[in-house]
Amino acid sequence: LLDDLKLYEPDAFFGQFKEMELRRIDVFRELSKREKVDFGFIVIKSSTVTIETMASVEYERQRNGDRSANIEFLRAAKAFCADLDDAISNLVAEFPGAEIIFVSDHAMSVRTHAVNPNVALARLGFQTPSVAKQKTFQLVHILKRLIPASIKSKLKNNKNIASKFQSMVGFEIKTSQAFCQALSNGRHGIFINDEVRFNGPVSVDDVQRIAQSIVDQLNQMDLAKAHGIKASLYEKPSGAKMAWRGPDIYLDMPFAYHTTTRFSDFVTATPLPGEPWSLADAVKDERTVAKSPEALAAIVGGEWLCDKGKGNLTAVYDHVLNRHPGKVD
Prior knowledge:
The protein is of the alpha+beta class. 41% of the residues lie in helices and 12% in strands.
């Protein structure tokens, strides 16, 4: 919409989103009537993520009394949300006996600080930095910002290029005992560089010991204490086939903090850009928000058929299984 169609005017931009989402809801409505669906779902993602990513920053500016906030964009975003609410309301009205569950697996926060766990690991002696690799890593990110979005999208879809980019690190793999690899805009844990998963120097028998040592030492760092960053051993779900791929250490931090490997300090303040913002700036891929852990699951027209307490989104799975016994495999 932005790079190819140049839809930089908020009304035109959200007009395309509105058409897309209304068509999606219409298709779901028709399929539900034709197929007599017992359980179905609609994924409304592109538009809502875009609003969270772009509008959150402008709302933050507005709350801070910043006159550079893009009021026109906020107005168009609010109007789109109202149209989406109306469309969902009409859909619910067409199926009065249906039970509706609204789910969001995470929220978004305007980020204020960037956290690079690799810097802490190096200071604690668990990682060997490589100046050459770090320079290459930074150069690639600079070039990434200069490449047009249309070309960037094609490169992302190339599995070989994407794999090589995601494998880039700023440390010596053969001598580093632990690392963090931040591949998306959110929070990431710390992995022990063991011999089985990463062909690293740590034996499987030493993973737990080294992980505990990192947790103990990182939690004693003054900077970690000052910013409310706390490490803990990650409890991998028992019986989960892919659990071994998960991190060994979980990092808990304030909602406005996110992990990254692009900054040279353990914790770096990331204030909002000072210049006025527009949709034309979105193609620069300047991230100013990060995923935050607040999830949402709300039922309309029904009651939960499971008891997992608040904060456990797997309750949705259990509820659906209990609601449709024998129909969901």
